[in-house]
Amino acid sequence: MYDVIVIGGGVIGGAIIRELSRYDLSVCLVEREHDVCMGQSKANSGIVHAGFDAKENSLKAKFNLLGNKMMKDYAETLGVKYRNNGSLVVAFSDEDLRTLSELKRRGEANGVDGLEIIGVDRLRELEPNVSKSAVGALHAKTGGIVCPYELTIAEIGNAMDNGAELFTDFNVTKIQGKFGNFEVFSENGDKVSGKIIINASGLSGEKIASLVGDNSFKIGGRRGEYILLDRNSGNFVNHTLFFTPTEKGKGILVSQTVDGNIILGPTAEEVDDGSTDTTAAGLESVIAKSKMMTENPPLYNAITSFSGVRAYSDRHDFIIEESKAKKGFINCVGIESPGLTSAPAIAKYVVEELIGKTLALNEKQNFIARRKPDYFFKNLTDEEKNAIIAKDPAYGRIICRCEKITEGEIIRAIHENPPAKDIDAVKRRTRAGMGRCQGGFCQPYVAEIISRELGIPLEKVTKKGKNSELLSGRAK
Predict the structure, then answer these.
(1) What is the pLDDT of residue 413?
(2) Is the sign of the CA dihedral 86, 92, 97, 99 positive or negative?
(3) In CATH, which of 3.10.129.10, 1.10.10.10, 1.10.10.1100, 3.40.50.1000 is domain 377-460?
């Protein structure tokens, strides 16, 4: 019997279970996929929003501001890269300029510091490659960038280091019982029992809530397509560049990532099935808008395209509350943008204000707060590298040449919390396969390492879990 069961291994579920692991509680996280961070948390812009866009007095506004102020220390503690690069909402017309004034007013009402409307000359000083059609911008100095999948994996790994348990391939199909004695079943017949349930299941939030008779909200999906440019173009822009926002979101952006790439996107298309396919029309839209935002974007340096689906609720705000249909069942759903920014603040609120009302929160004396980065070797000095290689020669073998990732780092990712059990899991933890060749050279070597370390046949190694085997069998 667990004290708390968290359903959903995204950045919100990860932040909550990490916060829970700070206390003397037995907690577990169940995730339907083969690895954590397989939903909207793995494929988004990675923007730490300043907080000027959310409507006053909304949960989005409240938790965005709190999360923004927490993110630098939060990421550093978890060994995750974060950069305060600032954001610019670019105006292209007098109407856009009026919108910027409203965003500035709203941001200041929300408590955002350092907002400034700048003219075109100052804008071009900050961003020489901005479009010649731009007429000004809202400069939000507290905006930043972080890696969403690194953050999610680090949260869950740190929680596991502190005693939390993880169950993957656990697709929840039935919940029975009541507060103090819930039973959660998977489609395979597996079961976990707990006193409290946290529903942080993203696109599945409505379905999971319905299992306890809660039909108080609807969850929709909005697909966003992206193009990623190689790090050769990493200095094309310095800030995160936004168009003025619409009802469907903040629109296509042009931004650096914390790893030095340039990301373009996302689109906003309603989808019913959670499809993450990319489309010719979607990518053409990303290209067209990127050319509107900047002069001659280096699209020749594109190395991949991808899409993610973000969940939103019919309440048009975060839903963070105990269900009125079932005591002890807490919904954390409809967490669209700025959900990534808000994650640490949401987790603190859920644990202290919602769970803390019914369970005693006694802090662990031996809580492990810090976590070592998943990939680190290439950033060390030669002396530090030599010292590590002397202890473990696997760190002297480069597997991914594009990203300079060593065999030692891959082995570590396979055995640390949460363990990397497939090709994409290794990729998200170490960046092996994220460079210009997109795994063209290193993928076979990564597969061999997984096979060896997990003691499974090479044919059983998958790209991303069930039905994604790399090999069909041996030819000879």
Answers:
(1) 96
(2) negative
(3) 1.10.10.1100
Report whether 209 contacts 331 (CB < 8 A): yes
Question: What is the model's pTM?
Answer: 0.96
Q: Which CATH superfamily is domain 2-41+149-219+315-357 in?
A: FAD/NAD(P)-binding domain (3.50.50.60)
The residues, ordered by sequence, that sit 6+ positions from 196 with a Cβ below 8 Å of its Cβ are: 3, 4, 5, 179, 182, 328, 329, 330, 355, 358, 359
Give Dmax over CA atoms of the chain in angstroms.
69
Cβ(309)–Cβ(203) below 8 Å: yes
C-beta separation of 51 from 340 below 8 A? no
Q: Which two tokens stand for residue 143?
A: 């905006």
DSSP string, 47-87: EE--SSSSPTTSHHHHHHHHHHHHHHHHHHHTT--EE---E
User: Which residues lie across from 270 on neighbouring strands?
Assistant: 222
DSSP string covering 203-226: GGHHHHHHTTT--S--EEEEEEEE
- Annotate 29-56 with b (16+ C-beta within 10 A) or e (fewer): bbbbbbbbbbbbbbbbbbbbbbbbbbee
CB atoms within 10 A of CB 87: 26
Instruction: Compute the distance between CA of residue 52 and CA of residue 104 in angstroms, rounded to an integer.
Output: 6
Q: CB–CB of 303/439 below 8 Å?
A: no
* Residue 313 host element (H or E): strand 302-313
Query: Tokens 């340039």 map to which residue?
Result: 262
Given 49, 239, 316, 415, which residue is catalytic? Answer: 49
**What pLDDT does residue 248 have?**
55
Residue where the block lists tokens 């976990």: 192
* Active-site residue, 49 included: yes
Closest CA to 424 of 436, 415, 432, 435: 432
Which tokens is 53 given? 């866009």
Phi, psi angles (nearest 5°) of residue 348: -65, -40
Block mean pLDDT (10 aa), the chain, length 476: 98 98 98 96 94 95 98 97 97 94 96 97 98 98 97 98 98 98 96 98 98 98 96 96 77 94 95 89 97 97 95 96 98 97 98 97 97 89 96 96 95 97 96 92 96 96 93 81
**Which tokens is 413 given?**
């990712």
